[in-house]
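Listing S7. Sequence submitted for prediction.
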Amino acid sequence: MSCAPTRTDDASHQPDNPQENDPARTNLLSPASRFQRPHGPPSGNARRFRIHGADVSASVAVFLIALPLSLGIALATGAPLQAGLVAAAVGGIVAGRLGGAPLQVSGPAAGLTVVTAELIQQYGWRTTCAITVLAGLCQLVLAALRVARSALAVSPAIVHGMLAGIGATIALAQLHIVLGGTPQSSAVSNVRGLPAQLADLHPAALSVSVLTVAVLLIWPRVPGHAGRIVRKIPAALAAVAAATAFAAFAGLHQARVDLPSWRSHALPELPEGPVLGLLAAVLTITLVGSVESLLSAVAIDKLVAARKKPAVRVPRADLDRELAGQGAANMVSGALGGLPVTGVAVRSSANVSAGAVSRNSTMLHGLWVVVAALLLVPVLDLIPLAALAALVMVVGVQMVNITHLRSVKKNREMLVYAATLTAVVLTGVLEGVVIGIAVAVAVALHRLTRTRITVEEQDGVHRMRARGQLTFLAVPRLSRMLSQVPHGADCVVELDGSFMDHAAYEALHDWQTSHTSQGGTVEVTGRAGGRISEPADETHGCCRPWTPWRNHHCDDRPRDADTHHLANGLSSFQRNTAPLVRDELARLAREGQRPSQLFITCADSRLVTSMITASGPGDLFTVRNVGNLVPLPGEKGADDSVAAAIEYAVDVLGVDSITVCGHSGCGAMQALLNSPPDGTATPLARWLRHGRPSLRRMKNRHRSWARISGRLPADAVEQLCLTNVVQQLEHLRAHESVARRLAEGSLQLHGMYFHVGEAQAYLLTSTAEQEIDEVFDRVAPAPSTLEKSHS
């Protein structure tokens, strides 16, 4: 493809395949395996520790955000202020090094503020540190059990409601400090005490807080060239710095940050208290911290995928490894007297936006926190506590996210969201989440059992509408309504739901079969009126819905049925598919073909191009030949048919891209690999001569080899299949029409590899012109409509 990946530091320190240098692996290869060689830079360079400049600048940006937030969160929990710095440093260094999300930044998070504050009030700070250590141990156990993905099964409405409830609780508590008072022990108490606090305002604290909030809100909105310059400084740092300077110059007397000597820093002690209460505390820290970290990792993956620059391939998050990294960080943070650690979306987003390319940025940010905690204590002691309280209050308000609220409303889960939010504010985080889950289950059961079925007649056509999910619970009502349709009548069944279980399907299918046998007609449609395909014939009951295009053999079919397989397929097309595509084909017949790309692939029968590219009529201009070869123009004995197709596609049809697609187990590549240099001049041998440059490229020790999704090819045949795709792309560039369009920037070339046995597509992510490894990356499944709506 047009963009080439730059290796991250992770890639430079870890081999792409632990078996790369294993001598036993070479025994699996054919005689051509003597050309195998290790990938990557020489061993001398592999051990050199390098840090990308983008990681350094990103780490500074994240550090400037994390420093005031860490102090503010520690203040909000009632923990020693140094505990916030310890958690930020440990989260950056330990979780950054061991975690599975390279660009996620970990540290003290607002999501655990309420939980930690309650634990400190109930058990004291040193026992809370011990609880943090035990929670980290639980996270390590969960990671070993590989249950990280299970955390994503929690309804987004519950997660958003939990965060909004925590944010509201934080904002109410910090509002008292902003006004110059002291927060109460619960959100309800803070609401009740607010009138008295408003009657007893402290002008010094209020003025500092108002300035902090004003800078936080105005800073990102400064217009023009000046705005682009000032926005390089994080708003949180600018707000705290402005408030500190104002308090110092105005000579305001108020509480400030007081970082005691590290010699008196409190460390954990053996937990004391009721066993069940301590277990509940450990469970709460574990669940809330794990869910927040994993959801943040998934969100950061989306941000990295959408980022245009820098064009660096960052691996997707390994959630089990990320959970293990969070567990290790919590154990270390608790042991050193720090707050609980989680992945933090705000700092992680800043890390991605600042251009970080590896986990080095996260680790460096932790190092800068250590340096600041040791060397900048006199500067930090100047910060007014009211400024930190105002900062955390704004963070709490922002946790009630309008975008999340709209998404929840769109998916009709406002009841779950509101119940979770209210329960978290009134009862606590763990209790609120449990109540939210109970409400979500009740809502799901209600929707599952609520099905409205109506039948009405319009112009002689009986229309039955089923609103809701069709389960076995709705079968009696469904059968009763279907019995109201007269025999021999025309009927349209409109299904407005996303689920139909086997019992409902059988009831509808049996009635449809009976009704049509008595002279009636039945058309099953979706909500928008689109027709749903009819069930497969009873003679094909053993086959799956995708088998009409599969060359399958049912056990109950006669052995000679394949004699008329083509005729049977044509008949099935005319009956089932033609009515659906007739309008589109008629349009293409009128307007002519306008394909978007030329697709050059092998003639192998296992490659169904329309299936693997999800394309339809008019989308692809396809050229198929043995070995997906592109002969060089003007070559002696060249076949002009491929060149003619290229010229027609590029100059006449004006395609935007050309894709060369190879595949696993290619017989042409096997024949090319085993053919003698001066073999018999059969038609196949003469054609395969156009693949000799690919064979020479693979044997050339001065060229880098192609890799497939970070691993070595399985054998020499697969290596030749991959190399052949890269070589044919070079042949394409030699064609005059292609070279001209490439120079204009109006044409793109793509390499693709399809593994037949895995049903997995891979795309080439580097150009053949560059002296780096060509990498074929796995193509991930596209999110479903439901996943898109939640994102």
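Caption to Listing S7: primary sequence and predicted structure tokens for the chain studied. The first strand starts at residue 105 and ends at 107. DSSP finds 32 helices and 13 strands in the chain.
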